[in-house]
Write a structure and sequence with these properties.
The complex is a heterodimer of chains A (330) and B (367).
Chain A (H helix, E strand, L loop, with lengths): L1 E5 H15 L3 E5 L15 H5 L4 E3 L4 H12 L4 E6 L9 H8 L2 H4 L9 E6 L14 H5 L5 E3 L4 H13 L4 E6 L6 E5 L11 E4 L4 E5 L2 H17 L3 E5 L2 E3 L3 H11 L2 E8 L4 H12 L9 E5 L8 H7 L3 H11 L6
Parallel strand pairs in A: 2-3, 2-4, 4-5, 5-7, 6-7, 10-11, 10-13, 13-14
Antiparallel strand pairs in A: 1-8, 6-12, 9-11
Helix pairs in contact in A: 1-7, 3-4, 8-12
Chain B lengths: L9 H7 L7 H5 L9 H4 L10 H26 L14 H9 L6 E3 L5 H6 L4 H8 L33 H15 L5 E6 L6 H12 L4 E7 L2 E2 L2 E2 H4 L8 H5 L2 E6 L3 H16 L5 E6 L17 H10 L2 H11 L5 H24 L15
Parallel strand pairs in B: 1-2, 2-3, 3-7, 6-7
Antiparallel strand pairs in B: 4-5
Helix pairs in contact in B: 4-5, 4-14, 4-15, 5-12, 7-15, 8-9
The chains are: A alpha/beta (330), B alpha/beta (367).
Chain lengths: 330, 367
């Protein structure tokens, strides 16, 4: 049986189910309590679980992420919410120097079952400090896992897996996707990390799309099918760490063309890493150099016309595939 | 080891009242630097309130830390240990007094100058020395070294290479204890340098609003690396920040192991009763440089001499034990000799232990 719910509801359901299942799971963050969160992603949780397990933190991100690390190594399973991914930059010491390393530095003496939920993505005219997509920073750090669900089903299944994982996991939620609807199984399910999903099958070109780019890639694939008769395969890694290299590489070997789309800044980021992976493992199968698209090398601007110019959209994806396939861009 | 037995007229008066957090505010008024405070120079050797076994145990533990650190200096200068070594010599009474007030299942977080905390919380000499020398038999299997020793089985959540790195972990452990409904407490060792880190305010604020069972123990050794604390700290007394953060605050004489023990015991009792967090500042001094190899040219030889002659925590406890008939010189020396042998055995163990094989490099990144 399937049910249609929003991405937001999927996030709430995942947390509620895990909190019912395991007394050590708790949620901490800014405004997550009675107000239900700025993105309404904890609505109903305070009423069901109370102030002891749904904790309104002061606006001190480094502080409550730090507390979550300490709680995680001493028997609890915190979910810490950073309402805007940009605020993760205040917490870098706690995440990178503490959470990511405490197990390794102590020779495996502890586990860090910490889930950090945070958002990514532009498109809301929120300007440069509320619009960044910073997942590449964390995927760079050994000891962390990074998940980026692109639909309600993945949002629920990946978040439940994150909460049950004994390592620090960052789950990046796309702000513009919270109202997106999709079907999810009504029965209990989780989605394992390190398993990519082929969101659309095709033969002529592979688009590896991350998070917010998955929906746009599917849109672009439809256009390319109708207007150019190009059969596009859209692959969503779903987790960057761990990474399902096999599914990505197999798809590129099959189609011979690869476009990588990510909303993070283009330079020194996810697209570069995946392009390197493909060149190392599928070079002989490529019929054209790997192409990649991402955010322009500018802070995300405020005005809609400027903001749209800074981030990829379905049209830029269509154009990139046409260029890859040697077709003229319109 | 030289010991002086000395009493002052103040001793008796001071002895008559137990040091409690509220009372010691008066005692803390004197800033214990040689130039500023003559009163503080007359250290009051009070009769110990702790029981005799505990005094011997604290004496032994302080000697253990001192000798361990002397041997760390030795193996470092002989080129037998890689990395850096920040020695705790001179500050032994803080770790020993504080940890004597804790149970095995209570938590501590430690600092880059953490060997003393770790030993005081019950770590073994041999596995400590092995870790410091990068050996597989070490507490962290050679992955952490001197600045990251942890012994989670004894509640030691780890030393930290980041100044102020323990605030979050210690406060989170206190939150966890409270959520799990235990009466465990968490003690965060940090220095005068870390007291200026922003994360202290952030975490202490949460400890205050949620009455978390945590003790913030500031070891004010008066130098943040090479810089005098007073030059970079906008408060005459760091503990004065406690009230502003909503915490109980108390200052103690860090060379007096019994005073440290009593003050921490009172803070622990408060925490276990659910009355929340306490901020304790102890005045102490490191007899060595910031790390082995630091010539410490930022302080005068006279200042160092004053502290070594007047505030050596081991000598002070020994004097008091002798004065009150608990110890005599020969019994103290026997303990010193036994401990020296234990430490030498630990060094031998560590020297002979193998380095971790290279194929362990990828282990324990993820659980």
């Amino acid at each position: 049986m399937m049910a249609e719910i929003t991405y937001r509801e999927a996030v709430i359901q995942a947390m509620a189910e895990e909190m019912r299942r395991d007394d050590t799971v708790f949620l901490i963050g800014e405004d997550v309590g009675p107000s239900g969160g700025i993105f309404k992603c904890s609505e109903g949780l305070f009423d069901e679980f109370g102030a002891d397990r749904v904790i309104d933190a002061p606006i001190t991100e480094a502080g409550y992420i730090g507390l979550s690390v300490g709680a995680a190594v001493t028997g609890m399973r915190p979910i810490a919410e950073l309402m805007f991914g940009d605020f993760s930059l205040l917490t870098m010491d706690q995440i990178v120097n503490q959470a990511a390393k405490i197990r390794y530095m102590t020779g495996g003496q502890c586990r860090v079952p910490l889930t950090i939920r945070l958002t990514m993505g532009a498109g809301r005219s929120s300007a440069a400090q509320h619009s960044q997509s910073l997942h590449a920073l964390f995927a760079h750090i050994p000891g962390l896992k990074v998940a980026l669900p692109s639909c309600p089903r993945d949002a629920k299944g990946l978040l439940k897996t994150a909460i049950r994982d004994d390592n620090p996991v960052l789950v990046f939620e796309g702000k513009l996707m919270y109202n997106d609807k999709g079907t999810v199984p009504e029965e209990e399910y989780t989605i394992p990390f390190g398993v990519a999903e082929i969101k659309r099958r095709g033969d002529d070109c592979t688009i590896i799309a991350i998070s917010s780019m998955v929906g746009l890639a599917l849109e672009a694939a439809e256009t390319l099918s109708l207007e150019d008769d190009i059969s596009v395969e859209v692959v969503d890694p779903r987790t960057l760490v761990p990474l399902d290299e096999e599914t990505l590489v197999d798809s590129v070997r099959k189609t011979g063309y690869a476009l990588i789309a990510d909303e993070g800044s283009l330079r020194y980021g996810v697209t570069g890493e995946l392009a390197a992976l493909i060149s190392e493992t599928a070079f002989d199968y490529l019929d054209a150099p790997v192409k990649r698209i991402g955010a322009a090398q500018v802070p995300i601007p405020f005005s809609p016309s400027l903001e749209m110019a800074a981030i990829p959209n379905a049209e830029t994806i269509v154009d990139a595939v046409r260029a890859l396939r040697g077709k003229n861009q319109r | 080891m030289k010991r002086k037995t000395r009493t002052t007229p103040r001793a008796k008066a001071a002895a008559e009242s137990r040091v409690t957090p509220s009372r010691s505010k008066a005692a803390a008024k004197s800033r214990v630097t040689p130039s500023r405070s003559k009163a503080a120079a007359k250290f009051p050797p009070r009769p110990p309130t702790a029981d005799t076994d505990m005094l011997w145990s604290m004496y032994r533990k302080m000697v253990q830390i001192r000798k361990f650190e002397e041997h760390v200096w030795d193996v470092y200068t002989r080129g037998l240990m890689p990395g850096l070594a920040h020695l705790y010599i001179g500050e032994e009474a803080v770790a020993v007094g504080a940890c004597a007030a804790l149970r095995d299942d209570d938590y501590i977080t430690s600092t880059h100058r953490g060997h003393g905390h770790c030993l005081a919380k019950g770590a073994r000499l041999d596995r400590m020395m092995a870790e410091i020398m990068g050996k597989e038999a070490g507490y962290c299997r050679g992955k952490g070294g001197s600045m990251h020793i942890a012994d989670m089985s004894m509640g030691n959540l780890g030393a930290n290479g980041i100044v102020g790195g323990g605030f979050g972990i210690a406060t989170g452990a206190a939150l966890s204890a409270k959520m799990r409904g235990t009466d465990q407490v968490s003690l965060c060792f940090f220095g005068d340098g870390a007291a200026n880190q922003g994360i202290f305010l952030e975490t202490a604020n949460m400890a205050a609003i949620w009455d978390l069972p945590v003790i913030y123990l500031c070891e004010n050794n008066q130098y943040g690396e090479h810089t005098p604390s007073g030059k970079v700290t906008g408060a005459e007394r760091i503990v004065d920040r406690a009230a502003a953060m909503g915490l109980a605050g108390v200052r103690a004489e860090g060379a007096d192991v019994i005073e440290v023990y009593e003050i921490i015991a009172a803070a622990v009792a408060r925490a276990r009763r659910g009355e929340g967090a306490t901020f304790v500042e102890v005045m102490t001094y490191r007899f060595r440089g910031h790390h082995v190899g630091d010539a410490a040219t930022y302080r005068t030889p006279e200042e160092l001499k004053w502290w070594m002659e007047n505030r050596d925590p081991i000598n002070l406890l020994a004097e008091r034990m002798i004065k009150h008939g608990i110890a005599d010189q020969s019994r103290l020396e026997r303990v010193d000799e036994q401990v020296e042998e234990e430490v030498i055995e630990a060094v031998e163990f560590a020297c002979n232990a193998p380095l971790p094989p290279a194929d362990q490099v990828g282990e324990d990144v993820y659980a």
